[in-house]
Design brief:
The chain is mainly α and 176 residues long. It has two domains: 99 residues, no CATH class; 40 residues, no CATH class. Helix 1 packs antiparallel against helix 2 and helix 2 packs antiparallel against helix 3. The protein starts with 5 loop residues before the first helix and ends in a 39-residue tail after the last helix. The C terminus is likely disordered. Keywords: Membrane, Transmembrane, Transmembrane helix. It is a multi-pass membrane protein.
């Protein structure tokens, strides 16, 4: 390899060091999150695929950054090529994942809406929690406002004068 400009070499090492630092921080956050949620068995099972993805992304990025710094410091062409190809493939993977997530977004939103609509009509303690959330965030219902509650419109749907989000027709709650 020919003589490399010192400024280019140092800037390359600095950028790769920033990438390595961010990757190490992401790995630390993933480890902390895994440790925190491992105490509750139900949450760990649902979060496991996401945690595995975060582990793999952060570890692979950290390894590629180490290879990139080695290639820049020792001026090894194979290491720089491996770093560049690995980062390009990682970027393409993340772009493909984003496109897939955007394509699934309407289905997930509809599924969540149906799930919470069933919870809203449930007569258990969940209904009380939903009413507390409605009072706290000054909202009423999930899809059509107070009409979601049918003939059992809760007090949380009544607007107060301090409301920042007007409740529409529910201000005049009709006796049912």
């Amino acid at each position: 390899m020919g003589k490399v400009n010192v400024c280019l070499k140092r800037s390359y090492i600095m950028v790769i060091s920033v990438i390595a630092t961010l990757s190490a921080l992401m790995l630390a956050v993933t480890l902390f999150t895994h440790g925190r949620f491992s105490r509750v068995d139900d949450e760990t099972e649902t979060m496991l695929p996401g945690l595995q993805l975060m582990y793999s992304i952060s570890i692979i990025t950290l390894i590629l950054a180490i290879i990139g710094v080695y290639g820049a410091c020792k001026e090894k062409k194979w290491a720089l090529i491996m770093f560049a190809v690995g980062m390009i493939l990682g970027t393409l993977f993340l772009i493909a994942s984003d496109i897939q997530a955007l394509a699934q977004r309407p289905k997930v939103a509809e599924h969540l809406k149906m799930h919470y609509m069933m919870l809203q009509n449930n007569a258990s303690g969940i209904t009380d929690d939903l009413r507390d959330v409605h009072i706290k965030f000054q909202c009423c219902g999930l899809d059509q406002g107070y009409l979601d509650w049918g003939y059992d419109i809760p007090e949380s749907c009544l607007c107060t004068e301090e409301s920042t989000n007007p409740c529409g027709s529910s201000q005049k709650q009709q006796s049912v």
